[in-house]
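Write out structure tokens for Serine protease.
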Amino acid sequence: MRRLIALATGLLLLVNGIRADDAIPAETVVSVKRATAYIRAEGTNWNGTGSGFVISVNKDTVLLATNYHVISSPSAEKRQRPAEFTTSTKQVTVTAVFNGGTKNEVESRAEVIACDPDNDLAILRVTGLKAPPAAIDFASAPAPVETMTVYTFGYPFGQSLATGKGAPAITVGKASVSSLRLDDAGELSRVQIDGSLNPGNSGGPMVDTKGRLVGVAVSRVRDGQGIGFAVPAAELGRLMKGRMGGVHLTARKGDDNKLVVKAEVGLIDPLAALKGATLHYVVVAPKGALPKPGEPVSKHPGAKSAVLKFDGGVATAELTLGATDGEIVVQAVPDGVPTGAGRVRTFPLTVPKGAKAVVLGEPGVPGGAGAGETAAPRGWKEYTPPNKTFKVWFPDNVKVEEEQKATPIQIDDPAPAAPFPAMPQFPAMPPIPAPPPLPGFPPPRFPALPPPPRFPALPQPPRLPNLFNRVYINVSSAVCAVPDGPSYVVEQVIITPPRGPVNADEIHRLLRQVAMGKGDAKVTRETDVQMGPFKGKEYLIERERGAVRARSFVIGSSFYLLRSIGSLDEVQSADSTRFLESCRLEKPAPPPPAVPGATVAGGTPHDTTFNDPVPAKGALVGVEFGLGKIGENRTVTAARAVFQVGGTESYGPWHGPEPAPADKSRVVAKTGYVLTGLSVRATAFWVQGVTATFTKQTEGKLDPKDSYESDPIGSKDGPDSVAVGGKAEAPIGFVGKTGARGLSGLGLAFKAVGAPPPARATTRGPRTHGGAHDSEHREVAPAGGYLIGLEVGMSKWFNNDVVGSVRAVYRTGDKETLGEQFGTLAGPAVKVVAKPGYAVGALALKARGGLDSIVITFMKVVDGKLDPKDSYESERLGGPGGPGGREPVRVGGDGTLVVGLLARANHKDVTGLGLIYPDTNKPGLDAPWPRGLPTQIQGGGGDPEFREVGPEGSVLVGLEVGVGRFFDNPVIKCVRPVFRGGDKETTGEWHGPTDQTVVKEFVKVVAKPGYAVGVLTVRTGLGADGLSITFMKVVDGKLDPKDSYESEWVGGKGGGEGKVGDGTLAIGLIGKARADTVSGFGLLHPIAPKK
């Protein structure tokens, strides 16, 4: 933020330094400033600011011009695509502020009356304006020429430059025309200037020295210094006369098997000047010749026309086509307004089999489809790589060259702090078969991938390393080189095993450099795009010879790069768009359907569910169980229901392997009672124990006061029991889950399911992020209050912006209060507070050595809770972080009201933050860290930390460990502590995944009576390889290292070894874990009481 403000201040100083003899006349400056307005737009879950200017005045009503992207939802700008119907602006509130930053400031509500997404223009209407300013002349606009001096008026950086409570003051800049960009028809499309346009300038006027409009400021080149663009004034003139907008085609098969196409054309007509229009169209057979750029469709051989009927803001016509393949080319032309002709648009006539109706459009646009979602258009084929991870469309009858490589990389300990493992030289692609030369430059060739920046290759070890210290970079590529045309390239990079969260921005920058290749190349356009639900980036790269249009996607540990390589016209053609838009990931198999009305304890989403209904006029009176053993522990391996109808018993089917008679145990209600509840002790993989609840039933009614429990079936140990049902309702079904080992979950089905069983306590994500070794501070809001914002002081780390101090902002009723300041305030602070009715719901934190940045998510407060669906984000506070940093870590966000702030700080700066909730006070979750002295953590790198203590008075006596596999090597995937207090043994929470697809076996390592955990010996690499525990004798509340023994080794022996603990009694377990594995271990020691 400071950098942006400094840049804006520099622009102001530049304006003040303009020589008097080259300046725009003072009266012209005053007139244009009065006509320029500050524009605010607010929609559902988004808001934005920009500039606009008056183009017409009629008494107290004025019309303003601005950019379409200023008043539209950000999602409307994500795709580079032909304009469909204008995104609805009915849910957008637009405000125009005149004379911003002065005592004469006037704020008025504005109505959107016309939108032109193709040219990024919109027209607003403001009524009831007293003393409206004079309009800026756009009708007699001068023809722009290179080196022409122009002046920009607008509100860069929006509210950030406001010095008071009102709007910011206007900023005036000087620039010159550096280039005139033409479209395919030879018409002026964009005016390029050598002065930079900043966010907030969009929609403002760019005028000559006489105050005549030259263009509408629209954009700048990302990463380009001093380059901006404007929409030519002539485009605004054509819009005001009326023009035809986006086209929407819907096709269906008629009774005679002909194709019936309904055409709908948007009208861009702010002054209601259009009176009629005609749709010209032509069907082009596969491989047929399309109209040339600039050629009207009506002049193409075989063209037909249909009269469009006006209905509100839409013109419609219905076309009957004999052909059902190829492409249809359309153009709408208004009567008597030749300058208002719509763009020539091409749609494939692909209609899926069995479809009653389908929207025709380029793949990826609303109603369109990608590979795997519909058949490929004529002239194209669907391609799936050997690993079957994605699909894409390539031109038909062109050979696809494939290559797959897996490169092993040795990872030394400790693992380097990089977004992903250091990458070697990418294997060079074989040359594409040379097509005939394109005019003006040699045929495109797939460039060799250069080594990525900032990631030096790791030295190769002298001998074959342990597999556990390896990752593999798997590169799959497919190249389709069209003779006399462009080359289409898809590359996929998969890192195995995953190395945790990656820095998506860094990966996108790396992929962009790969797309640029070697030699002189420049990115002239960068936009946000999507591949199905996944967001990515698109780059237009212009080279000395030719161009590249590329898209990059970062999806977990997989990276995708799609490229169209050829001439500038070829890479921007409809065919290139079709290729880039068609790529889709393979969809995963749908999850198994849920059992209606069922509540089950245990099992995983992948297990098979069962539901045995209670017979008509019958009741569930018991369960027969099959028993087994895992180690020394009894388990329940199978179960079947016992029903009763009219005094006669019957059984349901066995779920799990049918047991031998000696392994059966039957629990049935005594006469007059029915089964109404189960208390189930289950892991994700098996049921360890069950207790049944029976309730008296008289004439169909239950008496909750007359009930009893059965003896426990199976083991009494294991996880805490989960109650299913109770005493007040009779079940209508016996339900559960079965997995590879047999019975994995058990429950009951009811007519009306009440509150679900209490879920196991799980973290909301990391409790805090950053400042792992710094002291922690806890602060809670005043009674009845909650967190609504932060006051953040900025600091510097070398040349990087970082967060130096933080203090909470609380709201109690109508009163706002500030909390304690954590860290040192070195300069002005930025206060970011929720708008009325909202509160802090989550923080996105980027931290490494210190706290780099904060982004606050505000959520709507509804009945004392937060609604995550109604939320918005603040701007980033702080800097982007250094190279190789991880993605921001999200703290909170589940909709629980936040009532306090956790902060970690050193002697100078705040280094980490977390949140406190009113409903959680369990060790290791969102409550304050358990009191204790932590050891260092062996392993884990930058993964989220956990910390857990047992019940008061207990000590750590062991661990329960889930062991998985990495290739053929055993590794530790999850762990939970085992505590002992007196004669009672309890287990803590699982840290790491417990799913049976990840964990192959569980091992419980516990001290013999009178001993406790003294030291952990741990080996770690990418995750946790293995460990052993040194147990020591407990004597008078202390450990005796002389009386000790070591457990057997659990897991593998790869990675580097370290020890945690020094023989001091441990009251808790600390460590680090991520979604796919536990990765680090440490111990928590008690704090000695003060004397």
